[in-house]
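Q: Here's a chain of 121 amino acids. Please give me its 3D structure as tokens.
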Amino acid sequence: MTPYSIDTDPARRLLTIVMRGYWDQPTFERFAAEYSRKIRQMHASGTLDNALIDGREFAVQARTISDQFRDLIAAHTHYMAKRTATVVPAHLNKLQAERAGEAIDARYFTDMAEAEAWLFG
């Protein structure tokens, strides 16, 4: 199983990210490069309104990786989706995700159906 996937759906104006496991530095760097490329492409074409992040299988990360997520998001604030729904497995994951995404309009859920209802409702 791969540690992440990043899919774009221009017709739905949606970016979907799935993150799994515990990441090392090379994994984060590969993710950051692909994320940056795809989010900028969608923004440039005007096809990014919503983002759905599935972190149900994403472990609580080391502080260095968590801090890099925060920096990555902050560096791309201009390109971000108008709304982001993030699904996490537990409260500690939610706290880490909130800290990383404090610069964007995001909500955090433990249930995928609730996240999708908020995002598309």
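Q: Can you summarize the key feature?
A: The longest strand covers residues 50-58.
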